[in-house]
Amino acid sequence: MKIYTLGTTLVVLFFFIRFNVLFPELMHKYLKGIHLWEMGYQFGNSLGIHAPALNMHLAFVTVSAFYFVIRSFKDHEELKLKICTILIFIFSFFFVLFVNTRMALVNVFIGFLIVLFYAAKQDNFKKIVLRGLPLLALLTIVLFLFVQKDPYMKEKYSSVSFAYMDKVGKLDEIDHPEVKVFNSLVTRVSIWKSAWELSLKNLPFGVGASDGKTELNKYYKETNQKFLAKYEFPTHNQFLDFLLKFGILGPFVVLFYISIIGYLGFDLKNAVIVSFFIIFFTSNLMDDFLLRFDGIAFSGFWVSIFASYWMQQKSAFIKST
């Protein structure tokens, strides 16, 4: 976990420096507060990865880094190691803010609470609070400085996210929807509404594994949703995607797979694994990461490690008894 957290943070730091060198005009524009909505997506594109997928990884890295900061105080590590751990945490949190996807940022703060909750259960509550306060102050400072440079963030997490919710399924009534609601919740809900309606028409077995996106695009056209048809939006929800493709059993298969992570975390009472479960579960409510190679590899890799760790702990417990 430490190698992964450090390695990923350094790799992203390298690409952040590269982004500044290769695209100085973009950074100059963002520092002036122009087109801030595109910043995270442009950075993700420079790495060849979709911004929400990148930020799903970074959210887990940040929560893991936070866990190691708490551990460094608990284990009374040397001052140099503590400083390094805190720096990794600050950089990883900054990158989550820079890519700036809503679900990832929410998951980061949920992860922090989970880490503090389990730490408090295993240690003196007062000590955990005293350790957590300086970290909370650090987070507040980083967040405050970032928002000062990115005023769009205030809009994104308030008016932009929840704008035009009365236009669900009627996005074409909005003037220039590609400008005003391309990444808004109303677009996701409109997609989900269409996917749900089409899924109900094709129960109990769905439209088939290869026809999900094609049939959904046809349904956009049949229901005269020109904006959705033009950009051929996928379902953006793994549970709905499998419901559409495979019928009734589809969502249960997704839930079973993701629940394995939750079981391992809760059974081990491990904050990092529980946080991963929350991050991956909620991410698949807003996107369809089990259709993407990076999502499958990311989850499969960590499920294997968590399961191996679970087996080691159970084996050690059996031997001790």
What does this structure look like?
With 321 residues, the protein is an all-alpha fold. The chain has helices at 2-22, 24-31, 39-47, 51-74, 79-99, 102-122, 125-149, 152-160, 177-180, 185-201, 212-222, 226-231, 238-246, 249-268, 271-286, 293-320. The mean pLDDT is 89.
Helix content: over 70%
Distance N terminus to C terminus?
28 Å
Shape: globular
Count of β-strands: 0
The topology string of helices and strands comes to: HHHHHHHHHHHHHHHH
| Radius of gyration over C-alpha positions, nearest whole angstrom | 21 Å
Number of helices: 16
How many separate structural domains? 3
Coarse structural class: mainly alpha
Give the quaternary arrangement of the chains: single chain
Which percent band covers the strand fraction? Answer: under 5%
**What is the residue-averaged pLDDT?**
89
Largest sheet: none
Question: Secondary-structure map with pairings?
Answer:
Layout: H1 2-22, H2 24-31, H3 39-47, H4 51-74, H5 79-99, H6 102-122, H7 125-149, H8 152-160, H9 177-180, H10 185-201, H11 212-222, H12 226-231, H13 238-246, H14 249-268, H15 271-286, H16 293-320
Short characterization:
78% of the residues lie in helices and 0% in strands. It has 321 residues and is an all-alpha fold.
What are its keywords?
single chain; 321 residues; mainly alpha; 78% helix; globular
